């Protein structure tokens, strides 16, 4: 998996690579367990948006290392802040841009997935976890609470009572427990988690890009809207796809019993 020439030099705290139509972003602050400082998040969002605009990239994998996906926010940056300075800094606004990425983001996580790391993972669309993964929101142990969506996304994903337990105790859960609660899609041995995510990303990358994009938007619409609104949005997307060349190709290929060739048009 080789990066594009010159791409890596643009970033200090992430690494960017490509494997065919899959863009791979690796968080890279190993000395502090990939703690999320402001610059890392800025670089990450910039890389995600660049890949979203690149037609040759069809899916994105976001990962860390075997020891930590991300162990939380960089506390050194916040320890001396005040309520006013945090308000003026408004550091979480940039996180909102992650939710606007059109292409599927697959998180490949291992080791510590805590605090901001858990919130980042929950911003992804699919999660492959190694069996060593520990997932949690331990902010309460520092006298604060999640600020990048932890209380909201965790509750929607695992339900009220489990979210309350995790948020109020700060205790992490194992990969297997996360699988039972729907926080991750699959748990695999630690030596396989990244390749498993890339393999899945390649499978999705082979699908028609417009349909992939509208399916992602429709699923996200279901999370925050009444069923009636979601159904209307889904129906309109379904009709819209009949204006695409990929719809014509896909249905013709089915009738002709051959493999379709999708172009994203």
From TrEMBL:
Which GO molecular function entries does the Swiss-Prot or TrEMBL record give? hydro-lyase activity
Q: Which InterPro entries match?
A: ClpP/crotonase-like_dom_sf, Enoyl-CoA_hyd/isom_CS, Enoyl-CoA_hydra/iso, Enoyl-CoA_hydra_C
Keywords assigned by UniProt, alphabetized: Lyase
Q: Which domain of life is it from?
A: Bacteria
State the Gene Ontology BP annotations.
fatty acid beta-oxidation
Looking up PROSITE patterns in the UniProt record yields: ENOYL_COA_HYDRATASE (PS00166)
For this chain, the family text in UniProt reads:
Belongs to the enoyl-CoA hydratase/isomerase family.
Q: What is this protein called?
A: Enoyl-CoA hydratase
Q: Which organism is it from?
A: Collibacillus ludicampi
């Amino acid at each position: 998996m080789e990066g594009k020439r010159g791409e890596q030099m643009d970033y200090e705290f992430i690494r960017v690579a490509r494997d065919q139509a899959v863009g791979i972003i690796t968080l890279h602050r190993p000395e502090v367990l990939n703690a999320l400082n402001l610059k890392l998040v800025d670089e990450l969002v910039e890389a995600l948006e660049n890949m979203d605009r690149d037609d040759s990239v069809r899916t994105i994998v976001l990962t860390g290392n075997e020891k930590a996906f991300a162990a939380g926010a960089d506390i050194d940056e916040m320890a001396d802040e005040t309520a006013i300075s945090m308000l003026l800094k408004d550091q979480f606004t940039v996180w909102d841009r992650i939710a606007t990425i059109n292409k599927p983001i697959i998180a490949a996580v291992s080791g510590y997935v805590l605090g901001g790391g858990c919130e980042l993972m929950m911003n992804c669309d699919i999660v492959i976890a190694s069996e060593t993964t520990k997932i949690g929101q331990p902010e309460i142990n520092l006298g604060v609470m999640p600020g990048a969506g932890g209380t909201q996304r965790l509750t929607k994903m695992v339900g009220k009572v489990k979210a309350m337990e995790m948020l109020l105790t700060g205790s992490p859960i194992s990969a297997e427990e996360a699988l039972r609660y729907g926080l991750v899609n699959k748990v695999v041995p630690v030596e396989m988690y990244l390749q498993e995510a890339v393999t899945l990303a390649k499978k999705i990358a082979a699908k028609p890009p417009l349909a992939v994009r509208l399916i992602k938007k429709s699923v996200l619409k279901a999370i925050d809207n009444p069923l009636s609104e979601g159904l209307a949005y889904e129906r309109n997307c379904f009709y819209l796809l009949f204006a695409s060349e990929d719809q014509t190709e896909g249905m013709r290929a089915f009738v002709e019993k051959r493999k379709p060739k999708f172009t994203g048009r």
